Structure to design on (83 residues):
């Protein structure tokens, strides 16, 4: 198995929307749209927006995971025990 597939097989993945590339591309497209409308966003501002958006997405994912754990435990029909 090559290195790329080994990394994927080890569970070393993340959701597509958590990718800085995807977030940056979205912000870049928004910047292009705003520029077409007459607004300008410089590279430094785009960088700040990417960092803030990444932090927001990460926090939202962590909150969603926590909520899923709590709901899963409440909805569970079996108790957790030793094997």
């Amino acid at each position: 198995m090559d290195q790329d597939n080994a990394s994927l097989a080890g569970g070393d993945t993340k959701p597509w929307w958590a990718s800085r590339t995807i977030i940056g591309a979205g912000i870049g497209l928004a910047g292009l749209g705003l520029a077409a409308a007459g607004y300008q966003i410089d590279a430094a501002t785009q960088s700040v927006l990417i960092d803030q958006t990444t932090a927001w997405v990460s926090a939202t994912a962590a909150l969603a995971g926590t909520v899923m754990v709590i709901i899963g435990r409440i909805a569970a029909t079996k108790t957790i025990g030793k094997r």
